[in-house]
Predict the structure.
Amino acid sequence: MKEKLQLLKRNQIDTSLWNTCVEESVQSIVFAFSWYLDITSPDWWAVIIQKNEKYVWVMPLPVKKKQGFHFIKMPLFTHELGYFSSLQNADDYTSTALQIIKNEIPYCIDYTFNSKNKVDTTIYVEDINVSLTKSWEDLYSLFSKNKKRNIRRGINRNNELIELKEIDTFLDIFEKNTAKRIGNIDIHFIKEQLKQLYQVLYKHNVISIFATATDNNYESVSIFIKHKNHFQYLLNTATEGSRSKNSRNYILSEFIKSNLNKATALHFGTYVNLSEIDIHYKNQLRPYFEGFTKDRILLPALKWNNLPWYINFIHLSKKFVFKQISKIGF
């Protein structure tokens, strides 16, 4: 292993070389392109190997800074990252890259690699994955009893799948119906970020948005991303009144039917990362997707804490005080 790994900040990275490397890599995913990272993590860093005026190995790092220390945290609407390379020995550089990263970034709240990465870790998360290479009958036979019942209801109670060429409908329903069930989130920040993501995803022709409606009133909306031979289910939302109609199950079942053998898989992800996500919402969200399939893909993940003891002490003290206050009802 002769190639030199460099830790670079955003303003030092050549986006043309970066995007070519991500596009040509065997691990390629939308979340790793510079135009996506620039929105989800504007101050991102990266470990890079450059050879013959090309980037041949890259690893994006969603870096933030607080109290004078840099840290890593997976950003919103990013299910996975990791390293990207077309080198046959790409796995050989991981441990060295992580040493370089930890020397400069003492704290990692969470970092999820992609399924084609090999990492020395004991932490894994599961991606829920529906194969699109099977027949509808074979896929349907694998659904849970509850999911089959809800899909039948959805088909009976919904008449048409509508493709949207804008995201405002989704954002309106999301703010009025879904946001309040998630917990303490900055809805204005999320809406602005989703608007920006829609613009770049639409520009690169990788986003599809489908909805259901009754009497010209939209009731449910789902967002899909396609890259190369797979789809990513990004987000969904629905009005309170449409939940009993199983509109989102209808959208998913029709989407799966229409894309059989056009791609290899539909990934639901571990779940959409939302800071301070309400535990009840998370417990509802994951079982919803698990009803479609028992297929799981393990994604390696890492976290570390090399912060000075006094920073950790302050942080733990604040958590303890907050917990005690919560107990007595203030």
